[in-house]
């Protein structure tokens, strides 16, 4: 017999565990004596196709597991979500109406549950937002401030609310462990960065740009009900980014004080603008006001923000930029 487990499978660098077929032939390990007439690496006896197929399947599974682990490490997600739904938490004041599923209704008490969790665990909104639904402190602060009814909320908001509800259904000990892991990760990142803070306030715009923007916003609020906002605004956003050759991250920051992930989600769902969806309507109104600025003024804002990003280019890309107004909140 050939101890095939010692030979690497082509295309796979992971160490291969012994196949069940190898262990079923007895407890005594097979010994291979190299033959002088054979080229190094060749075997004296033919390898069965079944054994080769078993090793290839095992290599494929290990590669898939490695890719999943890399994805989890990048997104700071809990691996438990891949294997089975989160169990129902015993720490909630009252049980939820249904088990977790893709169609689970979000309880209207989700906002109070989040506040209670922040107080119980003694964690910041930034930590909870990252581990619960992989978003920023600014978005969580906005969600808690507006407290929209989940029954009439937009689809993009429901995705975030459902993610928070699912996370809160994890056992309390499991959530605390995730919080601790996130704290340690943040501390390690801060140590690697040196004096640079994890949350930094972006530089304010020049007086002339800021004044013009404020004046436009005031006019926009007066015309909010008659503002030309329809489904075509999503195409306008993409055309503007293409014209100005700016990234989604830069446009989202200067046009709506949001993150690149928020803008990706907005353009993905392309929900029909309606004043009933208050959060969606206000955000699109902010973008509409920005797009209503003269083109040279928009380009000046892009250039200024791009220079500010390049000025802080020595910082790691995972620094979270939060507007000053949200930090005060």
UniProtKB/TrEMBL annotation:
Superkingdom of source: Eukaryota
Coiled coil stretches, renumbered: none
Residue stretches of biased makeup (Polar residues): 1-31
Principal location: nucleus
GO process terms (BP): chromatin remodeling
Keywords, sorted A to Z: DNA-binding, Homeobox, Nucleus, Transcription, Transcription regulation
InterPro entries linked: CUT_dom (IPR003350), Lambda_DNA-bd_dom_sf (IPR010982), SATB1/SATB2 (IPR039673)
CUT domain mapped to chain residues: 96-183, 219-306
GO molecular function: DNA-binding transcription factor activity, RNA polymerase II-specific; RNA polymerase II cis-regulatory region sequence-specific DNA binding
SUPFAM superfamilies: lambda repressor-like DNA-binding domains
Descriptive protein name: DNA-binding protein SATB1
Organism: Neovison vison (American mink)
């Amino acid at each position: 017999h050939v101890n095939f487990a010692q030979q690497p499978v082509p295309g796979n660098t992971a160490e291969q565990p012994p196949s069940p077929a190898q262990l079923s032939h007895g407890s005594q390990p097979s010994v291979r004596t190299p033959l002088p007439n054979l080229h190094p690496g060749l075997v004296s006896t033919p390898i069965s196709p079944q054994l080769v197929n078993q090793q290839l399947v095992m290599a494929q599974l290990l590669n898939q597991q490695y890719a999943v682990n890399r994805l989890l490490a990048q997104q700071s997600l809990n691996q438990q979500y891949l294997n089975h739904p989160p169990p129902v938490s015993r720490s909630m004041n009252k049980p939820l109406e249904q088990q977790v599923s893709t169609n689970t209704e979000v309880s209207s008490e989700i906002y109070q549950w989040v506040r209670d969790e922040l107080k119980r665990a003694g964690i910041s909104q930034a930590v909870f937002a990252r581990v619960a639904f992989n978003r920023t402190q600014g978005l969580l602060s906005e969600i808690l401030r507006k407290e929209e009814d989940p029954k009439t909320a937009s689809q993009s908001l429901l995705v975030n609310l459902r993610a928070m509800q699912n996370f809160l259904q994890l056992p309390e000990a499991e959530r605390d462990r995730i919080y601790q892991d996130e704290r340690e990760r943040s501390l390690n990142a801060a140590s690697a960065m040196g004096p640079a803070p994890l949350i930094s306030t972006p530089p304010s715009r020049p007086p002339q740009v800021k004044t013009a923007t404020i004046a436009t916003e005031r006019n926009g609020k007066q015309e909010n009900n008659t503002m030309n906002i329809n489904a075509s605004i999503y195409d306008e956003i993409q055309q503007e980014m293409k014209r100005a050759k700016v990234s989604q991250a830069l446009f989202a920051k200067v046009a709506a004080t949001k993150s690149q992930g928020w803008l990706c989600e907005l353009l993905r769902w392309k929900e029909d603008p309606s004043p009933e969806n208050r959060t969606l309507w206000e955000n699109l109104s902010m973008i509409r006001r920005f797009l209503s600025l003269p083109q040279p003024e928009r380009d000046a804002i892009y250039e200024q923000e791009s220079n500010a990003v390049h000025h802080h280019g020595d910082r790691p890309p995972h620094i979270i930029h939060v507007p000053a107004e949200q930090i005060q909140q």
